[in-house]
Each structure stands twice: as structure tokens, then as C-alpha cells.
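In keeping with the milestone schedule agreed at the kick-off meeting, the structural modelling team has produced records for the first pair of proteins. Each record is given below as a sequence line and a C-alpha cell line. The laboratory manager (R.T.) confirmed that both were archived under the project's standard naming scheme.
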Amino acid sequence: MSNVLFRNSKYSTTKLLSTNIPIIEKSSHDKYQSINFLPENKQRLAEGGLRLSGSFKSSVDGKPLVSIVTIVYNGQEHIEETILSVLNQNYDNVEYIIIDGGSADNTLNILRKYDNSIDYWVSEGDSGISDAFNKGIRCCSGEIIGLINADDYYEADSFSSIVSSYIENEKTENVFFGNTNKITVNGRKEVKNDNNISWCISVPFSHCSSFVTKSYYKKYGLFDTKYRIGMDVELLMRGLKSSNYIKLEKFIATQRDGGVSDRNRLEGYKEYREIAIKHFGVVSGYLGYLLKVLVFYKNKVF
């Protein structure tokens, strides 16, 4: 990387900056086209970040670029904690993209507070969670992409562990994942018990604790916008036959209970059934759905 600027050694996102705009490689086989900026939108409320001041990032020798995407809508309560969990990582080649859905609370003021540490942020309406994630992923320049919601946060040193595994297990379409903590509705921090029974029930790890290579997205595509809750499950199932899913024995992120999937659990199960049928067949799909519903009513999880 030429023309490297060392702006601020305090944050993970401000240590390796360049005035060179990343060259976007194009292939007829790619399922989507990467971009440096989202197209102009008359409904856009605001945008900001390092890119607008002419600072960009790319991978350098021994330091693959990690891109993080956060989507948020009226997330003033926890968004700053999420941002700081990215900025305070000890890995020093990190790119941070935030897609805001047009917040009307204090979220935009918080984004402006970190304008010189976030690479690119935009506030505008979208058509749902999948659409917002897709916007963010299109703007990613990194080889490794992590998605963290605005009420969750990364544990310390998570990125260094992911990058080490990426270098050790380099393959074009990999998914890396670790363990997850959760914060209950009562405010307790506990270990989250992920599904370990079958993929036809759900992905056996939490999305916030997984990182996916950019080449995986290029090969299998972005999120299917028809799914409102199970979009991450469907996307992560696409590569089961030909990609590596690599487990790290480390806690990667902490997730708060009460998200959209928790609030709409039965609706989510119906989406999971459709997704399981798509990837595993009718029998596995319905068996997985029945098991989910039985556990739901047994534990009265709402």
C-alpha cells in the first residue's frame, strides 16, 4: 500500500490509511459488484466517514483487511458500545462500514462523533435488514467480512484470532466462527448455547460471531431480501457442499437477547423450515421445524 497515512494509533481503523482509491476487480462470475460509495439517493439524510475525506484501505503483506458492517435503526442506546468494540480491537487493518436506516433518535450524532474513525456511513431508508446488510457488504474492500448489529459487540482481540485462522487455513470460500456470549433481558451476561444438533434446524453458531470471506459472497451472492428473519441462515447454508466452516475456540462476540428473531420466533421458524427444505429436502425441513416448535413451547421462549 503506497501513500500510507498514519492518522491515529489509538483505533484499529485509523492505523493504515491510504490516499489510493481501491481498484475494484470485476469478474463475470461474481454474484454482485463491489462499490466504494453507495449511489446517490434523494432520500439520504446524511453520510460521512474517512472515505469522504479521501482516505481508503486495502490489504497489505501479512495484514489482510478486515471489513466490519453494522446496520442500525434508532439504536442510540447501544450503538456507541458496538462502535468502540470495533475501534478498540488490537488488529490494525480494519475497515468499518455503518448503514443506518434513517434513524430519528440520537444515532446520527453518535456516528458523527466517530466520523474520523468510521470508514463510511450512510443514513437513508431501506427495504429491511437484508437490504441494509447488502448495502454494507457491497461497500466492503476487505478479504474478511464480519457483521455486527447495533445492540451487540465484539469481545477483545477477536479480529486477531480470526485473521490468524484465515492465514492458516487460506481457501477462497471460508466461514470462520467462534463462541458467543449473550446478555439476557435481565442484564446478565451468559454463554449462549448454539444449536449443535443439525444444520436443518439452524446454523450451529451465531451470526455475530462469524466472519465470511469476501470470495464466499462473490461466489454465493448476498442476502436474499425475501427473508425477514432467517436471511443469515439461508446465506450460510449455500456453501455447505464446497466451503470450509472453521471453528475457533474463542468467544468472538456478545449478543443481546430481544432482537428481531427473538421477538418473532415462530415466524422465524417458518422461514427456517422453508430454508431447510430448500437445502436439505422436505423431510429434513419439516422435522427441523417441528423440533424448533416443540422446544419453543417447552421452554416458553419469547
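The second protein of the pair:
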Amino acid sequence: MIDDVSHIANMAIASHHFTASMKYQSRIFVTLRPSVLDPAGTAVQSALKQMDYHVDSVRIGKYVEIILDAADEAEASQKLNETCDKLLANPVIENYRFELTVIEEAKA
């Protein structure tokens, strides 16, 4: 019985280490929430106006690219949501969205 449990545990550990993963490229866009003032955007809008480029509005944000490994798109999305919530975006004043693209399929 103990040998069976040990064998099952070893199989689980081995399968964990050899789980096929795919490589994803993510494009992350972090922007201020609409209710938050954007002094940098206002300054750029003003400069554009002085250059005779009249625009209705300017909002400044951040763009980040990350390449990551994940078993599937759901796992990649979960990892990116955690990364954005904990590091890349301030959820009090910023929104984020991301796009995922498979750049390398899992090897058989």
C-alpha cells in the first residue's frame, strides 16, 4: 500500500515537471481611470494645441510587453492578472487590459 502511494506521488511529481507549456507574448496597457485627472495628458494636449494640432483629449498610460510560459491561455491570463494587480497597475486609480498571443506551441 505504501509503495502504491509512493508510486502515485512520484508520478504526480514527474507529471508536474513535464507539463507541456506554451510561450505567450502579452501586451499590457495600463491607463488612468476616466475619473482621475491626468496632468501629463493635459500638458501634451496643450503642447499639441500650441503646435496647431487640435485634439479633443489626451490621456497618458503605460505599455508593457511580457513573454511568459503557461500551460494554457487561462493560466497565462491568471498570471498576468496577478502581475498587473500586484505590480504593474495601481487598481485604485488605473485600469489595465492585455492581449495574449501564442508565440511557441508546446513541444510533444
